[in-house]
Amino acid sequence: MDPAFAGLPPDDDKGVGLVVTAWALGAAGTILLSMRMYTRAFIVRKIGRDDWTMVLSVILALITNIVVTLMVHYGVGRHTVFLTEEQRVRAVFYIWLSVPFSPGSAAVGKISIAFLLMRLMNRDRRREAFLWTLIALLIIVNMLLIIITFAECRPVTFLWDRVGTVAHGTCWSPTVQQDYGYFQGAFSAFSDLVLALFPITILWNLQLPFRSKLVIGFLMSLGVVATVAAAVKTVELNNLATMDFTWDAVELVYWFLAENWIIIICACVPTIKPLIVTNWENFTRVASYVFGKSLASTIDTKDDQPSQFTGNSNQQYSYSLESYQPLRGTSRGTDRDSLRLLQHGQQDRDAGQHGSNPAVPGIMKTTEISVV
């Protein structure tokens, strides 16, 4: 061994795993976003502000992935001692460059979730005011993080280059950036937890089967995982202050990637059920045509089950979840969406076996509801 390298750690590289993780999560999130936008545009036929903000969140997350790839190229994931001075400067530059994009992606993703929750509520002013307050705080807290980061040193290039062309400069006390970073991380974890648990208060009053409430609530509460990622990320912030920062910062980068893409994935999964249901039905039709009805019935047994109501018309409809209004008592004529659903059954009765006879009481048509 060269005596110059005696006592040094091995020149391992953790950066490859970082890049693979970034783009694996990026692929999953981008595919789910594409499925979400297709569902909203062609099945539900209604694209909202929650969808467009989620698109922006994915764009910022993909830019973060590019920045992570560049920082790994210049040495993040290796021990600092094995890097050239130029590599160290470039690595630090890309670490700081990720600040506007990574927290920005997470914040915009949470804003998208807040907009989705507003869409599910029936003009509940108190809850809407709470969500708008949370949105405002997300914007303010993350904008201040960006401002403090790039206002910390003068000139700003002194933030990442302190020995090259910019040998002299001034910076604030390191505790300013560190303390605000801890605050931003704690608030990020808090907002993740709030948005993960908030759907429970909405689903409780929606006119949905209890099983549907459980499934939707579980899917939308997966954001608790993002809370864990944000909390661990906050703890890992101290690794930016070590001498071997290009090696020690890897865990921090892992966790801010995890928070970004977990938010995106958890926000998109509950919205694509109509797309899955529609394609599953198409698959069963093809299976019935190719292999016979017996095989198709093993895939989807609902086709062979008798209706529990009088009549034989069974259809499926995909409705946007926001069309379901909170329960408001038992008085008739107060829920336009319920009336619209019941109207399908009335029309079937009028055009059915009874001809011009008065409609027979009872539901003549069963409707399976898929929500998004």
Provide a short characterization of the protein structure:
The chain has 372 residues and is mostly helical.
Keywords for this entry:
disordered C terminus, Rhopdopsin 7-helix transmembrane proteins, mainly alpha, two-stranded antiparallel ribbon, 372 residues, 63% helix, 12 helices, two-stranded parallel ribbon, 3 domains
Note down, in words, how this protein is organized.
The protein is mainly alpha-helical and 372 residues long. The protein has 3 domains: 11-271, Rhopdopsin 7-helix transmembrane proteins, CATH 1.20.1070; 272-299; 306-371, no CATH class. The chain is 63% helix and 5% strand. The chain has 12 helices and 4 strands. The strands form 2 sheets. The protein has a two-stranded antiparallel ribbon. Helix 1 (15-43) packs antiparallel against helix 2, helix 2 (49-73) runs antiparallel to helix 9 (250-268) and helix 3 (85-120) packs parallel to helix 9 (250-268). The termini are far apart. The model is unreliable at 301-371 (pLDDT under 50).
